[in-house]
């Protein structure tokens, strides 16, 4: 089937095909568009010039591949996702169970679009079972737009109000200074100060339970010395339970102290005696205490 032979259309098609890993064979391309092979060569040179001018530091370029008998787009790894990276990210997305089925399929399809044609089929096969049996969160609510909306308020430092459905299904109204969005254990969370500064520690709200967001058109400013640090907060919060900062000390005699250190990033071994380790840490709220109790006789609180 002969396609539109207009130059702009040809260049767009050529770039689209190259970008997804297809090979441009001059003879086949010429026949498809009803043009000469010399015209195809000129199109390739024009596209080379465009890429050289618009992609920094030679991060992508077109070259002739003798084995494939056509032109391919070479992408440097630091600029584009590799097939291996696409597979890894897809696996993480599926395991996170953080999005409903429509959103997870959209994200995976967009990732697969960046893979080369042969790798795309391989990745599809590798994730086929996981994708088919994917179980979305029970709320089944679309989140991507909501996360972006909240992130814009965070970036603009705008005070917002919203309705929030608590775990007992009670709906409360909240006015907050939004600080950041975090992900943990299947859910996205909004971390925020109450607008009236009634708490000495940030509040935590599950994003899927937030509705009727309203921008109050009021800006807030936090002095630099009091700026919220996402990374430092994440180290000290377990299962997104809010509360005051606590200092804890406990003994652990389980088979893998590494699992404790990975679960509690602020944990520090202060004494070891064979398989028994004395550990100290600081964490917000009671989430860490709840988790430590699940370790049974391996943990003794000090």
What's a quick, concise take on this entry?
The protein is 38% helix and 27% strand. With 302 residues, the protein is an alpha+beta fold. The mean pLDDT is 84.
| Alpha-beta content class | alpha+beta
> Percent range for helical residues?
25-40%
Q: Detail the poorly predicted runs.
A: none
What order do the SSEs take from the amino end to the carboxyl end, as H and E? HHHEEHHHHEEEEEHEHEEHE
The neighbouring-strand order within the major sheet is 6-5-4-3-7
- Please state the second-level CATH architecture of the largest domain: Roll
What is the molecular shape?
elongated
Number of domains: 4
The CATH topology of the largest domain turns out to be SH3 type barrels
Number of helices: 10
Instruction: Provide the gyration radius in Å.
Output: 26 Å
Strand content bin? 25-35%
Number of strands: 11
| End-to-end C-alpha gap | 77 Å
Q: Major sheet, described briefly?
A: 5 strands, antiparallel
The pLDDT mean sits at: 84
CATH top level of the largest domain? Mainly Beta
